[in-house]
Amino acid sequence: MKIIVINCGSSSIKYQLFDMTGPSIMAKGVVEKIGLNGSFIKHESNGKKVTLEGEIIDHQSGIEYMLGILISREHGCIEDFREIDAVGHRVVHGGEKFKSSVLITDEVIAMLEESIRLAPLHNPPNLSGIYAMRSLLPDVPQAGTFDTAFHQSMPDYAYMYAIPYSLYTKYAIRRYGFHGTSHRYVSERAREILQGKPVQKIITCHLGNGASVAAVLDGRSVDTSMGLTPVEGLVMGTRCGDLDPGIMTYVMEREDINRSGINSLINKHSGLLGISGVSSDMRELETAAEQGNERARLALEMFHYRVRKYIGAYAAAMGGVDAVVFTGGIGENSDTSRYEISKGLEFLGLEFDREKNAGVRGQEKIISRDGSRVTAIIIPTNEELMIARDTEQLTMNNK
Ligand code: AMP
Which residues contact 398 (CB under 8 A, 6 or more apart)? Predict the structure, then answer.
């Protein structure tokens, strides 16, 4: 079965075409700068990478362009669209309606339209991708996989905010959590890799530009650090994470900024960038800190400290921890971050192995000492494969 996985952002479309026997990636790429000057597509298949320019005005034309490349003689890997058996879409916010991936129907689309108010930036481009694929490949089944779905198993006392209950009933204000497909993939993979070791209580740390931690008990998410929106929780590239809500009104008053100003302050000008004034990028911060930049050092320490605090909290929430998983651009690649986060967790039973950890980038590896009661492990995430597998399953069940 051949499945194409699509991830539509506001001005980009990431895609991967899978051959599910294997599974193997037949082609992948990204359409960039949709609706802007200088739009282009970076495409890779058969070991060849190309960048092609073109005027791409919207998601529909981006997907049309990408499909054209997939069947082209020069850069393609299939002869006909009819070879594509199903389409899997990443959808950011599924609200409370979607607890797992679903086949896209008119009813599902109506529910997604409704959930736009919960994710006004993310869900509209996701929907554009669904509409485009439906019109271009009308006979091909499509499925949606939600960033929020894995966390729908959280108990009410973990997902509710302590604000008037009527705000939950009226507006569905509660914690949803994000990166669910990644937390699900790496926790499942950890259970596969660590067969024979205890894996009942797993803490997964997805550390990238956006970052979140999840507590996974018996394969189900029971808590996670992001909330109604992806701003809560960890210190991120440009997002603030946990904050005293009183700060918002105080800053609005003192700085005379409005709602959109405060929104951009907590989403775009905070986090590692806001503290360091240098960059939101971990590599650049590590270099700046090595060169003695004090604020870069502070930003890094705040980042590591916050992750460590969450690991402690989630160990308490689950009554212990068996494994800590590192994933995402930082978790997979920064040996310094993994070490700084893990040091001081010996009291939980995590004996970190600095030698095993040193220099490891983007590969599955246990980085705790042999005999450590808690296993620390790096697992590169693979959300696209998870979406492809869900899509395959749903399509087969529907036959
Ligand atoms: P993501 O959002 O998952 O793509 O992760 C992006 C983050 O990963 C950025 O902060 C990068 O600086 C960081 N990152 C990627 N490679 C490395 C590396 N080799 N060392 C440290 N951080 C890295």
Answer: 103, 141
Per-residue DSSP letters for 206-231?
A: EESSSEEEEEEETTEEEEES--SSTT
Question: Which pairing describes strands 375-378 and 323-327: parallel, antiparallel, or unpaired?
Answer: parallel
Who contacts 20 (Cβ-Cβ below 8 Å, separation ≥6)? 1, 2, 3, 388, 389, 392
In the chain, the amino acid numbered 185 is Y
Q: Mind listing the pLDDT tens digit for each residue in 219-272?
A: 999 999 999 999 999 999 999 999 999 999 999 999 999 999 999 999 999 999
Catalytic-role residue among 106, 139, 147, 370: 147
156 is catalytic: no
DSSP strands (E only) in the chain: 2-8, 13-19, 24-32, 40-45, 48-53, 86-91, 102-103, 142-146, 201-207, 211-217, 220-224, 323-327, 365-366, 375-378
CA–CA gap between residue 388 and residue 5 (Å, rounded): 6
- Smallest CA-to-CA distance from 375 within 324, 336, 331 is with 324
For 111-168, how does the pLDDT look when each residue is reduced to its tens digit (9 = 90+)?
999 888 888 888 999 999 999 999 999 999 999 999 999 999 999 999 999 999 999 9
Site residues for ligand 1, CB cut-off 6 Å: 208-209, 237, 281-283, 328-330, 333-334, 361
What DSSP line would sit under 357-384, residue for residue? Answer: HTT--SS-EE-BPTT-SBEEEE----HH
Q: What are phi and psi of 300, to 5 degrees?
A: -65, -45
Residues 304 and 352: beta-carbon distance below 8 Å:
no
Identify the structural domains of the chain with CATH numbers, from first to last.
Answer: 2-149 (3.30.420.40), 196-378 (3.30.420.40)
- pLDDT band at residue 399 using 50, 70 and 90 as cut-offs: confident
Give residue 181 CA to ligand 1 midpoint distance, Å: 19
Ligand 1 atom 23 nearest Cα: 330
Q: How far is the CA of 114 from the centre of ligand 1 (A)?
A: 34
State the pTM of this model: 0.96
> Quick one: which atom of ligand 1 is closest to the CA of 209?
2
Ligand 1: residue whose CA is nearest its atom 15: 329
**Ligand 1: residue whose CA is nearest its atom 17:** 333
- The answer to whether the beta carbons of residues 146 and 112 sit under 8 Å apart is no
Give the CA radius of gyration of the chain.
21
At 338 the three-state DSSP class reads helix
